[in-house]
Amino acid sequence: MSNFLSWWNHIPEHIKPTLVTIGSFQLRYYGLMYIVAFAIVYYLVLYRVRTEKLGYSKDTINSYFIWAILGVIIGGRLGYVLFYNFKYFVNNPLEIIIPFDFSRGCRFTGISGMSYHGGVIGVILFSSLFCNKHKVNFWRLADLLCPAIPLGYTFGRLGNFINGELYGRVTDVPWGMYFPLDPTHQLRHPSQLYEAIFEGIFLFILLWSLRKIKVSDGFFLSLYLIGYGFVRFFIEFVRQPDSQLGFILGPLSMGQILCIVMVLGGIFIIVIKVLRNSRF
User: Fold this and answer.
1) In whole angstroms, what is the distance from residue 59 CA to residue 170 CA?
2) What is the DSSP letter of 94?
3) How far is it, in rounded angstroms, from Cα 267 to Cα 258?
4) Which of 142, 191, 199, 278 has its CA 20 to 30 A from that of 228?
5) Cα torsion at 26, 14, 164, 180 (round to 10°)?
6) What is the residue range of 224's domain?
7) What is the torsion angle, in degrees rounded to the nearest 10, for the CA atoms of residue 129, residue 114, residue 226 and residue 71?
């Protein structure tokens, strides 16, 4: 047993996050996980459209996903800039969109830093624009997507784990891990795996199993926002806060504050869309 725990504790130290390196350019597994995540959500949505006769064409879904991907990337990046590192990017605005460092020649660095909550805001805004342009009901489209999203999100967190980033706080639990990016080299909670399991797999099973029940439009969007926000709020208690921010309000991190807003948003949708119609 002790040999297994020792192997488990040191797994992150033996993972190589880079798939291909060409000069200063690196292709990381994290980027591939984004592709896998989008592909999984896309095919699950197409499966629903085909088997549940929801009235959407494949062309509509294809067009929408271009907008959704842009929403995730743009929203996620700007969310990180605004929520997590605003002071730095005010002084270095080009680094928001340019993946190169020119301080010593020209060195590819990639674009580092994405915010989940920013991605959610981006998707909602881009989805609203898409629905307005193509005369699609926003609430029904959101309910089509939400049961599939958590499974895709699972792979995003696995990408964080492979990268060795967003690790948890120092712990003495036997399933803790040593992460190579941790300058203190202490045993820490593998919070990326907690998030993959609970915000991803658990929430996916819940929403997917309920997807066919007859409820008011917007119900699954509200359930997703509340479910994700609730689970993430508590996992943040074992996740290491961003070093440039620390704790924002007492013991609460920026992620927890954004999760509170997310839950309140889900409750607001229930009030205006579900309870008003009195149909569950």
Assistant:
1) 48
2) G
3) 14
4) 278
5) -100
6) 2-275
7) 10
Residue 70 placed within a domain: yes
Location of structure tokens 């980033």 = 165
Residue 194 belongs to a domain: yes
Q: How far is CA 45 from CA 52, 60, 128, 185, 214, in A?
A: 10, 12, 18, 42, 18
Cβ burial, residue 177 (10 Å; 0-12/13-18/19+) = buried
Give the separation between CA 11 and CA 120, rounded to whole angstroms: 31
Query: Which helix (DSSP H) or strand (DSSP E) does residue 26 occupy?
Result: strand 25-28
Tokens of 162: 């492979």
Q: What b/e string do you get for 130-143 counting C-beta neighbours within 10 Å, with b at 16 or more?
A: bbeeeeeebbbbbb
Token pair for residue 243? Answer: 């070093």
User: Which has the higher per-residue pLDDT, 90 or 278?
Assistant: 90
Percent of the residues in the chain that have a pLDDT greater than 90, as a whole number: 67
Instruction: Please state the pTM of the whole predicted model.
Output: 0.90
* Residue whose structure tokens are 């990639």: 110
pLDDT tens digits, one per residue of 228-275: 999 999 999 999 998 888 889 889 999 999 999 999 999 999 888 766
Q: Does some domain include residue 280?
A: no
Q: Residues 261, 237: contact at Cβ < 8 Å? A: no
108 within some domain: yes
